[in-house]
Each structure stands twice: as structure tokens, then as C-alpha cells.
Amino acid sequence: AKVDTNGLALVQMARIDVGGNRAGTQTGYNAYGFSGQVRVLIEGINTTEGTGGAGFYFDYSSLEEVFLDVNALAKGEAFMAIGTTSVSDDGNLLAFLTDVTGYREYELSVKDLRTGKLVETKFVKATQIEWAADNKTLFYVTEDDAKRDHKVWRHTLGQPREKDTLVLEENDELFTVGVSRSADERYLFIS
After folding, report:
1. Across-strand partners of 173?
2. Which of 45, 80, 114, 141 has the fewest CB atoms within 10 Å, counting from its CB?
3. 184 burial via Cβ count (<10 Å: 0-12, 13-18, 19+)
């Protein structure tokens, strides 16, 4: 099958990985091409839990939306890799990590999914990201020179990086830190 991404790319898909968003109302998937750096992240198959044997059904009449075209991001780059992606609870913002070095040096960007515009671009190197429930606060993890995840930061969209708050720093080199949310999304965990 071919995926038309609004004129940005035409991808001959080799594999599709299906996942879901936090709200459980949509399923996103990755479309992988046969060659090159062809990967398109697509959102938009509505799902609803049911009681049948499959436990859910797909609403195939829902519209698909390409929310991250890695081919477009890779233009002019010798290398492009996508790290973690995270959609805000309201579904309006996408935080994502990109590496253009090949050395797992990911930089954090945020895209407004309503407009398709980047609202914050590569403002900090990070290894993990997680949204707060307010849809404007983002927690991220940075690493030390040994590539050990050791600091958790809080960032408010629209604020300069210098105003980010250090939430936790792990000084013991035998340990790392991470950030995640509970399954019901009521709690943010720093571990």
C-alpha cells in the first residue's frame, strides 16, 4: 500500500507497527519503507473497546493524519533517527526527539498537531520525555558525559530553556533516572 502524506512523501510500505495513544481513542502506527530513511508516523484510526472476541473495532472511515514525516525532517541531513515521541493528553501537541549525529544525541522539539508547525525546535538534548496532564508542561531527562541519564527537568512551553526547573539529579554514578506516567495517567513517576 502507498501512503499519501499530503504531498510530502509517497511511501511504499514494507511494515506497519500499530500502537495507541493515551486517551485510547485513536491508534497510531509507523509506516516503514523498503529502503532509505523512509518512516512516517501516522495517527488517526479511531478505536473503541468492545465486548467481542477482538475486544475492539476499527473505525476505518476516520481520517489518517501524518503527524511526523521523518523524510521531511531528514532533508539535508546525512543521518536522521527518531527517538521517543509523546502526544499531549489533549492530542494537540507532539514532543519528539531527533538525532542527526548517529551518536544517540537526541534533541527535543515540539510540534503543534493542529497547525503542523514546530512550536519549539531542538531546544535541549534529552533522552526521555513525558507530558504533564496540563498539556503545557513537559518533563525531560538529560544525560552526563558518560551518556548516563542523570537529571530530570520540567519545561513549560513558551518559556526559554534557561527557565527550566531541575526536578531531580542523580549524583551516584551507579544509578540512572527516568520519567514515566501511571497507566491511569494520574501520576508522574521519577525513578
Report:
1. none
2. 114
3. exposed
> What is the Cα–Cα distance from 63 to 76, expressed in whole angstroms?
30
CB atoms within 10 A of CB 56: 13
Identity (one letter) of the amino acid at 123?
A: F
- Give the integer Cα–Cα distance in Å for 61 and 191: 41
Distance (Å, whole) CA 170 – CA 176: 7
DSSP 133-151: TTSSEEEEEEE-TT--EEE
pTM higher than 0.85 for the full model? no
139-175 pLDDT tens trace: 999 999 999 999 999 999 999 999 999 999 999 999 9
String of DSSP letters for 47-61? EEE-SSSSSEEEETT
Long-range contacts of 69-77 (CB under 8 A, 24+ apart): 69/5, 69/8, 69/9, 69/40, 69/41, 70/37, 70/38, 70/39, 70/40, 70/41, 71/8, 71/9, 71/11, 71/37, 71/38, 71/39, 71/40, 72/8, 72/9, 73/98, 74/37
Rounded Cα gap, residues 77 and 180, in angstroms: 31
Tell me the three state secondary structure of residue 162: helix
